[in-house]
Amino acid sequence: MTQEKQPDTKSRSRRKVPIMPAVDFPHGARVEVQVGRVRIAVFNINGEYFALYGRCPHQSAPLSRGRLQGTVICNKETCWETKWVHDGEVLVCPGHGMEYHVRSGKAFGYDLKLRTYEVVVEEGQVTLVL
Ligand code: FES
């Protein structure tokens, strides 16, 4: 009996999409990239690059135009005291103000998560890895 070999998805090469030279994408910059039919918002926050699905699931506002700030939490982990967290890493939707954590794509106050993408710098180019 011959056993069929399963495709090795880990070694499958991933598509790389160069965005722009890193020198042209400084801290605080953001850009919207279109890959096929998908728009992706890419941010440089203190030298770290983050990429998220670029449209808000509420009413499709372009998230690359959102403000970056922190947010207030008050829960069991903070002993029910209000605490300012994730300063500069909370993306506020320009549509109606939903807040997303740029690192994880998770929405604050809602059970949803934006897709995130890996970003690397290769040979001086900021590059999306899909
Ligand atoms: S479109 Fe983003 S909160 Fe409404």
Using brief descriptors, characterize the structure shown.
130 residues; mainly beta; Rieske Iron-sulfur Protein; six-stranded antiparallel sheet; three-stranded antiparallel sheet; globular; binds FE2/S2 (inorganic) cluster
Brief digest:
0% of the residues lie in helices and 45% in strands.
Describe this structure in words.
The chain has 130 residues and is mainly beta. It has one domain: Rieske Iron-sulfur Protein (3-layer Sandwich). The chain has no helices and nine strands. The protein has strands at residues 16-21, 30-35, 38-45, 48-53, 67-73, 83-92, 99-101, 116-122, 125-129. The strands form two sheets. The protein has a six-stranded antiparallel β-sheet, with no helix packed on it. The mean pLDDT is 93. The structure holds FE2/S2 (inorganic) cluster. FE2/S2 (inorganic) cluster binds at residues 56, 58-59, 61, 93, 95-98.
Structural classification: mainly beta
- Which architecture does the CATH hierarchy give at level 2? 3-layer Sandwich
Calculate the mean pLDDT score and round it. Answer: 93
Small molecules bound? FE2/S2 (inorganic) cluster
Distance between the termini: 37 Å
Shape: globular
With strands numbered from the N-terminus, the spatial order across the biggest sheet is 1-9-8-4-3-2
**What would the CATH topology be?**
Rieske Iron-sulfur Protein
In helices, the fraction of residues equals under 10%
